[in-house]
Amino acid sequence: MTATEGAIRPAHVGAEPVLRTDYQRSIASYWNAERAPVNIRLGEVDGLYHHHYGIGDYDPAVLETRADLRDEAMIVEMHRLETAQADVLLDHLGDIGPNDRLLDGGSGRGGTSFMAHQRFGCRVDGVTISESQVAFANAQAVERGVADSVRFHFANMLDTGFESGAIRGIWTNETTMYVDLHELYAEFGRLLTRGGRYVCITGCYNDVTGGRSRAVSQIDQHYICNIHPRSAYFKAMAANGLVPINVVDLTAATIPYWELRARSSVASGIEDAFLTAYREGSFHYLLIAADRA
Ligand code: SAH
To answer: Which of 22, 52, 228, 271 could form a disulfide with 232 if both were Cys (CB 3.0 to 4.6 A apart)?
Structure first.
């Protein structure tokens, strides 16, 4: 399915290409080709595919599991922590009713969107610039019997083409490091109803006590992304009518996940950079919830 097949047809489709820059094309090909075991094997645990990190303490018993079963136990545990992260994000969306609409900005393989629909029973639209993710997530929606309410579109979150003022809640789960925040929040400000809620979970670097650290630069290079400084989020939100109601520092809560992941068979090689950046205080894992004024 493409964006043009959704019931709400993004207005720009046919006029403007979804991918506008070489940078966006390189991100799209990265995600189109992505088959990382840390994403696939964890998703296979229960069919919720996440491309974000986990929070909360892991059960130390997994490390004591019999050697031949230990790897699988660690994978199940990491998946539980990633699902817990999405639950905390959804906790911050506020009161969402079955007639509301939600938007998942940078929806990946769809995990958080399916959880949102399960929880609120409402319509959810996900947008991603990866066509293979769109196909994967829409196939999942059919398999789950929710294709009428949960739809994924090949669309750019900087310019979705969706109608103005019709969306009650928007979230970005680890996607804002790929875009210009001013452009993003101008679009979200346009899409949200007055009083609508935006929730962001992101890694950001600490520009209060320093600049971009070596470990943060390593993370940028690993994912071809551009991690923003903490202050940039609040400036871009304020400039676009998004008023923070909650800021939660999840840094301490995400460290155990990275420690477990570093010891697992699905470690991707970037674990030490995350652990260093978090421990030295140059990087934060932040949740920001804001209301549309
Ligand atoms: N939020 C998902 C996926 C995170 S991975 C999850 O939690 O599982 C990052 C996602 O951002 C990918 O799906 C990528 O395609 C998407 N993305 C990056 N730039 C984008 C843009 N400009 N518009 C829409 N999606 C974008």
So the answer is: 228
Q: What are phi and psi of 219, to 5 degrees?
A: -65, -45
Distance 199 CA to ligand 1 centre (A): 15
Atom of ligand 1 nearest to the CA of 104: 1
Q: What's the CATH architecture for 3-292?
A: 3-Layer(aba) Sandwich (3.40)
> How many residues are present in the chain?
293
**Domain residue extents for the chain:** 3-292
> What pLDDT score was predicted for residue 7?
43
**How far apart are the CA of 39 and the centre of ligand 1, in A?**
14
Q: How confident is the model at residue 6 (pLDDT cuts 50, 70, 90)?
A: very low
User: Following CA atoms 193, 197, 198, 200 in sequence, which dihedral angle do they give, to the nearest 10 degrees?
Assistant: -170
Q: For ligand 1, what atom is nearest to the CA of residue 172?
A: 1
Nearest to 283 by CA among 249, 257, 258, 240: 249
Atom of ligand 1 nearest to the CA of 31: 15
Distance 106 CA to ligand 1 centre (A): 3
Cα distance between residue 28 and residue 79, in whole Å: 25
Rounded distance from Cα 110 to ligand 1 centre (Å): 10
213-261 tens-digit pLDDT: 999 999 999 999 999 999 999 999 999 999 999 999 999 999 999 999 9
Q: What tens digit of pLDDT does each residue of 163-194 get?
A: 999 999 999 999 999 999 999 999 999 999 99
- Nearest to 197, CA basis, from 220, 174, 169: 169
Write out residues with Cβ below 6 Å of ligand 1.
Answer: 24, 27, 31, 50-52, 106-108, 111-112, 127-130, 133, 156-158, 173-175, 178-179
For 163, the 3-state DSSP assignment is: coil
Q: Are 120 and 97 in contact (CB under 8 A)?
A: yes
